[in-house]
Design goal:
Elements lengths: L3 H9 L3 E4 L5 E4 L13 E5 L2 E5 L3 H7 L7 H13 L3 E3 L2 E5 L5 H16 L1 H11 L1 H16 L3 E5 L9 E5 L7 E6 L2 H16 L5 E6 L7 H10 L2 E3 L2 H16 L1
Parallel strand pairs: 9-10, 10-11
Antiparallel strand pairs: 1-2, 2-3, 3-4, 4-6, 5-6, 7-8, 8-9
Helix pairs in contact: 3-4, 3-5, 7-8
Amino acid sequence: MIEAQTIARSMQDKIRLEPLPNGSYQVIAPFFHEDGDILDIFLREHEDRLQICDFGTTLMRLSYSFDINTENKNNILSKILLNNGVEDSAGNFITDTSANTFFDDLLRYQMAITKVCNMEILRKEYVASMFFEYFGSFVIDDLGKQFKRVERNFKPTKEPWFEADYAILDNTSSPVYIMGIKTDLHASRASAFCLRMEKESQNPISIAVHENPDALSKRDRDALTNAVHKQYTSLDDFKAKGQEFIIKNIA
């Protein structure tokens, strides 16, 4: 028979408070980093509020291997904290608690700290899942400031299969077709589109922007290379060099 109450008591008995000289307490609990170090979690009274906090140790530890130096990374950090009810107070991660809710608050807090410490992994997953959102935002919001005619989901022949994610039509004699490439299917469709446009006797400038070219099969990667005019191996690469390339080729 499962003795649920006994098990529950044994778990909470693993948590204790060690007093510190500054009047706060260190929370000693079986929560660990990947290298085996215990999570730095503290309990303090601040302006008549009981708070769980880390005194900035999480960001300090993270800085040894990962810098939060972009808007994207800051957004991910803010989302992690917000979703777990944790506030960033000048680098000190805090959440209010009470004697009655401490155990639940502690579990939620350690989850947030663990996710923050694994931000590099989360960032890669998040950027991957948001590839087309970031890609589209750059084309519409950033390139849209430079070029007057930017259209999305552009079908120059009105055929549904032959579609460019975005088209820049400032120079109609040299239309620019931009396609995001994440999977073999995207690569195959982009290749077919480029070949179709060549048959239309246009003078198109086709651009493929990859999430990760190494994720493609060799067959589809080679076919795309033979069909498209310009490839960028990442969205960051396209952001850095794409506008200059487009201006040069439609002038």
